[in-house]
Backbone:
């Protein structure tokens, strides 16, 4: 008896839930898709003149303003053999003489995502994890770093947590201010 | 000061996965770019520490030629391919596109194989914040409306600096309104920036608070305003960093779908019929993506506000993303009709607008006359 009561209670809960959840209306053809209650039409669909009258002022159309941060301006591309990749501008930190032709200003061939490109071109592309200070241009690379890049013989892309990033050039060493001429 | 920024990238886009997020930071007036590859359509990105003036986050997607409706167009020779040729040359074909513009809208002249910018937002400790909300009577997402219905625009502006504050800061934000026209059959934006532009009017806000305009009509440059198809975007921008480059801090987009039309075929208005013609049908175009459309018939002349007998064969329902076309038969048996006389067939459509009360699309009246008159003479020839 108790079991029957339990089953009845559970089914009652499910029925309530089912009635609360609104079944999404389906696309289809046939009278079964009619609204539950048929109302009389209230108005005609507006014509072009009626709508033009509603929109009292006609807005002037101008070409879209150029963006300040465009994709191409802040990007540089690497490419070889029909595929290329988009990278942040300034992310190439070392490029051997022989590979300079593979740095492009615009995409050459099909653009593919960076992780795929790196896997396909590991023979000439490598990455180097950089510190925040290096990204900000507050610290440069050491001489041993440069020697390692050179010895590797590959193009080196700066990464931060595994993703390509711009590395700003460290500011030129500050010229000591010339002492002001003593005023008589 | 170091703070981590957790971004939730939730995209309300019908197709196309985001392929990478680009973070642009200004450090000493120079742009530092950080690309984060992404997979899937939703996800979270833990950004690197934010320092300096702020950061711009952009979402990009590579165009997938397999799914692009434009590559399908190229396959189909003939009329549509001609349209595509016209688009490639960036000359808008007035008849085909229904645009009364003399200027060439957008477009760089060469097809750009670059990834497409999907969304952009600038964040920073000293940047104002804004939220733009567009709403129509239709609760569907992405937000959409019908060309003849007004929608509401709301912008909530926060953290604008007081102009009298000696520490300075950004004191105003500018909201621009852009548009993108869609292809009337494919229901997508034209490639390579064609059919895009801005409206000359812009709003400027120099106080914090919520600002609302409840009645905004779409202003897409279409020859027939009811047939406008495209999207309108409101973007709030502020100058960032020492360069004063305009960056977006909020944006909102609404899709505009055309008003539907119907043509009753094979019933001539006012003509006498002995029954509703077998081949009578309705050609429906640009039905709203969420709509139920049907024909009903009642005795008498056309009169708005009557409830007639629904013609079962004509009921067509849609609950989808883009406008739809349909051709439905008008099958009315003799038993469904009453006495002879004038009858009217009306095409009605119910949409989320008007509280789902039907709106009349078109109507036709005809005369039902089942009396068969035989004109003849009875001749009786009798031989006498």
Residues:
């Amino acid at each position: 008896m108790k079991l029957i009561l339990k089953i009845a209670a559970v089914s009652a809960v499910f029925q309530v839930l089912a009635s609360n959840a609104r079944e999404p209306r389906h696309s289809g053809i046939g009278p079964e898709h009619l609204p539950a209650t048929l109302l009389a039409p209230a108005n005609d669909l507006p014509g072009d003149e009626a709508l033009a009258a509603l929109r009292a002022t006609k807005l002037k159309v101008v070409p879209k303003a150029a963006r300040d941060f465009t994709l191409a301006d802040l990007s540089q591309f690497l490419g070889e053999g029909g595929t290329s990749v988009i990278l942040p501008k300034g992310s190439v930190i070392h490029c051997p003489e022989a590979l300079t032709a593979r740095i492009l200003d615009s995409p050459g061939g099909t653009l593919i995502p960076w992780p795929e490109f790196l896997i396909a071109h590991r023979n000439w592309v490598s990455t180097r994890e950089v510190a925040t200070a290096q990204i900000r241009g507050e610290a440069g690379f050491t001489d041993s770093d440069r020697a390692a890049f050179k010895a590797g013989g590959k193009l080196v892309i700066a990464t931060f947590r595994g993703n390509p990033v711009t590395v700003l050039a460290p500011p030129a060493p500050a010229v000591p201010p010339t002492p002001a001429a003593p005023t008589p | 000061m170091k703070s981590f920024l957790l971004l939730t990238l939730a995209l309300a886009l019908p197709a196309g996965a985001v392929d990478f997020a680009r973070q642009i930071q200004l450090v000493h007036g120079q742009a530092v770019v950080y690309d984060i590859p992404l997979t899937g359509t939703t996800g979270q990105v833990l950004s690197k520490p934010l320092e300096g003036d702020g950061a711009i986050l952009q979402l990009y997607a590579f165009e997938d030629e397999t799914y692009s409706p434009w590559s399908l167009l190229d396959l189909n020779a003939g009329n549509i391919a001609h349209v595509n040729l016209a688009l490639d040359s960036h000359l808008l074909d007035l008849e085909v596109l229904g645009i009364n513009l003399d200027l060439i809208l957008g477009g760089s002249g060469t097809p750009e194989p670059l990834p497409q910018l999907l969304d952009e937002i600038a964040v920073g400790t000293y940047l104002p914040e804004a939220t733009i909300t567009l709403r129509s009577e239709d609760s569907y997402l992405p937000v959409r409306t019908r060309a003849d219905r007004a929608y509401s625009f709301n912008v909530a502006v926060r953290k604008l600096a007081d102009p009298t504050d000696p520490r300075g800061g950004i004191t105003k934000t500018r909201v621009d309104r852009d548009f993108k026209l869609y292809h009337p059959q494919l229901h997508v934006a034209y490639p390579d920036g064609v059919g895009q532009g801005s409206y000359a009017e812009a709003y400027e806000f120099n106080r914090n608070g919520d600002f609302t305009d409840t009645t905004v009509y779409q202003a897409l440059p279409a020859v027939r305003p009811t047939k406008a198809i495209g999207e309108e975007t409101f973007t709030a921008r502020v100058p960032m960093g020492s360069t004063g480059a305009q960056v977006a801090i909020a944006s909102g987009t609404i899709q505009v779908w055309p008003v539907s039309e119907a043509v009753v075929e094979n019933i001539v208005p006012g003509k006498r019929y002995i029954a509703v013609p077998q081949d009578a049908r309705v050609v429906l175009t640009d039905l709203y993506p969420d709509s139920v459309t049907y024909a009903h018939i009642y005795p008498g002349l056309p009169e708005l506000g009557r409830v007639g007998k629904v013609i079962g064969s004509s009921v067509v329902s849609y609950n989808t993303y883009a406008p739809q076309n349909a051709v439905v038969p008008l099958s009315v048996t003799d038993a469904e009709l009453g006495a002879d006389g004038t009858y009217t067939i009306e095409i009605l459509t119910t949409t989320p607008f008007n509280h789902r009360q039907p709106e009349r699309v078109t109507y036709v009246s005809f005369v039902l006359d089942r009396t068969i008159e035989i004109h003849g003479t009875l001749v009786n020839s009798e031989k006498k």
Remarks:
- Chain A touches chain B through 64 residues (CB under 8 Å).
